[in-house]
Amino acid sequence: MATAQASKKTGQIIDTFAKFVVPNYRRYGIVLERGEGSWVWDADGQKYLDFFPGWGCNLLGHCPKPIVEAVQDQVAKLIHVPNTWYTEAQGLWAKMLSERSFGGQAFFCNSGTEANEAAIKLVRLHAPKGRYKIITFEGGFHGRTLGATSATAQPKYHEGLGPLMAGFVYAPFGDLEAVSRLVDDETAAIMIEPIQGEGGVNIPPDGFLQGLRSIANDQGLLLVFDEVQTGCGRTGEWFAYQHFGVTPDVMTLAKSLCGGIAGGALLTTAEIAPSLRPGMHAATFGGNPIAARAGIAALEMIEQENLLAHAKRLGELFRERMTALQGECDLVQEVRVQGVMIGVELSIDGTPVVQGCMDRKLLVNCTHGTVIRLLPAMNLTEQELHDGCDILCEVIKEQTG
Length: 401
Ligand SMILES: *Cc1c(COP(=O)(O)O)cnc(C)c1O
Hints:
globular, alpha/beta, 4-stranded mixed sheet, 12 helices
């Protein structure tokens, strides 16, 4: 229960932010203090069931034991090793990612947007002379640095920032004809989230990614998949591309890559990789031993606890619960699920649903105005799933009246 003293503490912390932290985020008036699995506690001692842990970063829940132990062990040995030296952990991490994806090589960085910047530079460095354009997709999201923002085909993220980086052209998600029309003799690559996350959990129409692969092959373009949100087990496969039978040339990862520790990666084939030649790109903290140990621990935990299969099972349960809700409630337009990546499209603004859930101690997200997005931990229990879905269904139904 909230005590007067704890609430005062919350107020003081929020005050400090108002004075000293750049106000570029809209924040909820809650101070989070600790987490365990799919639960978080605030400074007032209130407990929340978290269906959006760490904005997609905490795919293994809050403070998963293997990650905590790996980081605690590493932090006492070596905190940072620059990339002028070798560490065992970075090599092993790259090998493990390679073996679970398409057998290439890794470049490590610290975030999703950085991984995508690396991809953009790699595309340009690898392309034949005169080719530099990258086709990206409406509703996509690739990050907040200026290159990645330019790749993000959503005008709301561009306002006031122009001129953007040149060389991006935008196609509607799902429209192969449009992509074909946009390819010219300056095009170097197609870059896409195989399932759009921030854009509303949009699953590509049948044959779309295959079609992009064909266009890329025919025209000599690189196919880049941004799997920052969909990767590392989120969808019930290691990587979302594995659901579609389409292999990219370049893949970017971050968010859940290190079980909640900051880390990013670009994977590409051994043929393409040397285009990112020495001196052309770097990340000071990239592949540091803490991220590497956490990344390895995350992969091992997913395997040891059989979490890919569990994520698929959870996805089926979420689909059942949300489809049942759709049958009972006119506000639900569409339910889109791939593993523990869930979008519930409403016919109304989702903000009151997020607030209503929060009042009942369930944390969810709304993206694209009308899509309730859930990115729960892949080790959520079935009981937690049902408890959370009960709250979410209740809150959505209440919006009708
Ligand atoms: C979150 C996200 C990014 C940006 O990642 P950061 O770590 O915030 O830079 C890029 N691409 C996709 C698909 C994302 O979901």
